[in-house]
Write a structure and sequence with these properties.
2 copies of one chain form a homodimer.
Chain A (H helix, E strand, L loop, with lengths): L4 H6 L5 H10 L3 H9 L3 E3 L12 E3 L5 E6 L8 H13 L4 E4 L6 H11 L4 E3 L1 H7 L9 H14 L3 E4 L21 H13 L4 H4 L1 H11 L2 E4 L14 H19 L4 E5 L5 H14 L5 E4 L11 H15 L3 E3 L12 H21 L7 H11 L3 H7 L3 H10 L23 H14 L1
Parallel strand pairs in A: 3-4, 3-10, 4-5, 5-6, 6-7, 7-8, 8-9, 9-10
Antiparallel strand pairs in A: 1-2
Helix pairs in contact in A: 2-3, 4-5, 4-14, 6-7, 7-10, 12-13, 13-14, 15-16, 16-17
GO cellular component, one term (chains A, B): cytosol
Function (chains A, B): Catalyzes the synthesis of the hydroxymethylpyrimidine phosphate (HMP-P) moiety of thiamine from aminoimidazole ribotide (AIR) in a radical S-adenosyl-L-methionine (SAM)-dependent reaction.
Protein name (chains A, B): Phosphomethylpyrimidine synthase
Amino acid sequence: MNVTQMYRARQGEITPAMETVARSEQLEPEFVRSEVARGRMVITANINHKNLIPMGIGLNARCKINANIGNSKLSSGCKEELEKLDMAIRYGADTVMDLSTGEDINTIRQAIIDHSTVPIGTVPMYQAVEEIEDPLDLSGRKILDVIEQQARQGVDYMTVHCGILRQHIPMAMDRTTGIVSRGGSLMAQWMQRHEKENPIYEHYDELLEICQKYDVTLSLGDSLRPGCLADASDKAQLSELAILGELCKRAWEKDVQVMIEGPGHVPIDQIEYNVKKQMELCHEAPFYVLGPLVTDIAPGYDHITGAIGGALAAYYGVSMLCYVTPKEHLGLPNAEDVRNGIIAFKIAAHSANIARRFPGVRDRDDEMSKARFSFDWEKQFSLALDPERARQYRMESMPEELRNDCTTHHCSMCGPKFCSMNISHQIMDTAQNQ
Amino acid sequence: MNVTQMYRARQGEITPAMETVARSEQLEPEFVRSEVARGRMVITANINHKNLIPMGIGLNARCKINANIGNSKLSSGCKEELEKLDMAIRYGADTVMDLSTGEDINTIRQAIIDHSTVPIGTVPMYQAVEEIEDPLDLSGRKILDVIEQQARQGVDYMTVHCGILRQHIPMAMDRTTGIVSRGGSLMAQWMQRHEKENPIYEHYDELLEICQKYDVTLSLGDSLRPGCLADASDKAQLSELAILGELCKRAWEKDVQVMIEGPGHVPIDQIEYNVKKQMELCHEAPFYVLGPLVTDIAPGYDHITGAIGGALAAYYGVSMLCYVTPKEHLGLPNAEDVRNGIIAFKIAAHSANIARRFPGVRDRDDEMSKARFSFDWEKQFSLALDPERARQYRMESMPEELRNDCTTHHCSMCGPKFCSMNISHQIMDTAQNQ
């Protein structure tokens, strides 16, 4: 029995998951079904992820955001990761990737899946490498075993580095920052040392069988994404993208859902080209990009750098943005970094969704504007992407005696005499009386 | 004797200020002269601002950023404002506007001009209103007196609200957030109550004489800029913009330099239209926009919302971005907010300048990428827009024993085993040996 949403869509079935997606996107259920059938939308919903609220990712749905969490050998554990998960869901991450590479990978992942109502993604390669002595001892069998184990646990989508081939490695050798994908660099080294083709590429059909069995969505990783502006849109990146397009078609032949991962670091003037090229080479499969970062000189603020690139990418048709936190290029994010990264990317995705005029998406903005003009501070806080921070900033900038007074018809920016909204109300009143 | 840069440019003179601008922009001095002569570039340099380093703002120069500082009736004084000025210059503001509306306006402004190597802008209306009992007692004479006094002090550019006319007021009456410009709302109320035309519009020729005398650049304010997405690109906004285009021509006839101010709150899909429209109606005079903010629901993070809109606006040809701080819509920013606002807008302007391929502008990015790939942490910090924060984030996320070690070939994100750059080096070494 084939359980994938894609298979069922192709059989003409509107599944409960498709109905849920249709409701939340304000789309017709039949339209959702047809988008899933042709691969332009994925519903990342492993049959073993029991408490999941299904969610659609694709060109004709609102752009989503993903938050990466996970520990490393140097930092964090299960408690901290569940705290990050809570933070991520609370501030509006649409999916969460557990990228743990440290201790207790299996335990942490199970805890995360059990706690999460949003889809969980992983990069199985990390666990595979963690469980062997030397990354060079990796084998196709080992990777497939880990993938099957994670699929059984209920992972909804998985990044696999099967698009980087031996022929690509020389293309990356004169890059400014080489290969910056963790899984991609490990895979490249393995191919170089063994003088063999990419084992996940070689075992791709077996991989598809596992994905089909649990309805795991494949997220085809871009091992050769640029790690800096200087390497953007180069031959290495685009050659791998063409292979991802081929692998996408092979997955669709087996009714396996697919997303395509994308860069990375891209100057503003190359973002539209990158999105259009992906659509062309990968048959409009959902594009899932990391950032992209539009400058290299802002460590400590790369959530902003990435939000600029992400907003543009989403405007041009990217389906999901992977967030970047302020710690990018510097260290592993903590819970507060997760919060800052999520809000920055919520802003990026939401502002693009407004510009793409998805139904109902600007309503919250209009409500906020009305609350501003009526000095309804409590409503402004409740409509804010981060109510706690909005309240805190308002309070800390008011003079002592007004600190807890949320009824004033001004803030400390202009004070009562210069508040343009107050004056506007007076003008409107006078105009009505005239 | 006519002292303005525009007059001298039109006489064929390449002034020392133009030479300085040419050097910093990597442009030909004669090209700078011709841009100033035709009004497409301004050099905001009051003859009485003695320690100024001249700087060019225009379509064919790198996009600049402005930081607003200034106290309000509810908060801050001279000491705090000088602290904000230092912060602004340190983190790279190209100009600073003193928007004080509280106590000691004159003293604060003089202190700021004396301390500042970057151009200082003001909104003279604030002082004019502050010095009278009731804003409705304002007169053309009073405003001109304040403008002349500030010009004598050395203010390099001034926002004047002379484009909002009586005919425009009804257009703003059914807006969601009314008139959100402080000066604009005061002017509208004055016109409505007195049933007279805008006094600065009426006294425009006298205003131009003062500007000519000290070479004050006019920054024609957009009193009717939208205060929310719902009001963007409406009739009120565009009708005023057409008047600003007329006033621009009249200023150029007297060799007075002009910038045009712009929104505000604009959805991503309307930004290009707004920039092109301004160029058309205002004869390519430098466009100086506030943000623009691309969503209304992110109070506490509007520096990010504005950086997204600003990057796009700059990419389409805006000449200067006025920053927005995290406190926007909530209160008066403090020094830390100024820092966050500046860095966000440096990112926006710089990433647009890269995309517009101004000479040499990407060099720092490429140096940063090389420093990353060679694990030269100290160089990474020194090339960062905010060196202190980059260092702090790196340190706080490393384990205790490595906290002060900036020689490691990894960070806490991936740890030593999974560092893709490390693996890339190994791959490159092997490739070379093969």
